[in-house]
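Progress report, Aim 2. The chain analyzed during this reporting quarter is listed below.
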Amino acid sequence: MLITPSGSELNKDESADNTIFRSATEIANQELKQERLSTGSKNIDFLLDDGLECGAITQFYGASKAGKTHLCHLSCVVLPLHYSAIYIDTEDAFSIAKTRYIAQTRGLDFDRIMENVRVAKVDTTKKLEYCIESAQSKIKSESSIKLLIVDSMTYLYRVEFTERSRLPERQSRLNKYLHMLLQIAQTNDIAVVITNQVHSNPQPYSGSNKLQPIGGNILSYPCKYIVNIEGWGDQYRRAILEKHPHRPHFSVPLMIDDRGFSDRNPFSISEE
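Predicted structure tokens for the chain:
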């Protein structure tokens, strides 16, 4: 018997190359057909090449109050009603009132939206990991689930693993569950969104501090798309594309308003 990379067995008379290898053209055509979900913001959808890609992880990171959770709510509100979402909330930030306000301002059916969003509020890393495992089983059995949000992926690990001696354990567990999320996305063809916090990284010789996402490469590698959301003032934001399979870094303007993120600003693109 032959063993494929996925662990399945092949008979010797089966053509292994037809099972393991595909032409680049076939892969490209499949990617073109990949479904995408709107975030509710035309500017952010444009940044991501027409929305959240199903089969991939998209990471949004930024400082507190930048709008990461706001964007997660908006993505749930605009999700087509024949789909449903799972929202894993680690910071007690999921707001019924915010969801209702965005939905009503957009003229959408709030009650139907709430029926389609399943929320789990967790307060320990063990509960978070259990929820991710449970989500894997639930998504496998319910084909209507098309969006999985973890808001945020790093908060509880940052709270519980404060000692430097426990950093390897923290990174190992983050790595395990991020790759589980990637497997969930790819196997079930759903969009996975994670939010991430930032920490200050002093720049040598310049005396300035640069905000960087928590987790380093452990959080970067499994994500196909990474967007940094920066804010100034109460309303104005900028979304910066930092990782994309083929696009360079660039940014789009945003404004938080009653509808979630407003696209009424003059549309502009800034190269980074």
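The domain at 34-271 is CATH 3.40.50.300 (Rossmann fold). The chain has one domain: 34-271. These observations will guide the mutagenesis work planned for the next reporting period.
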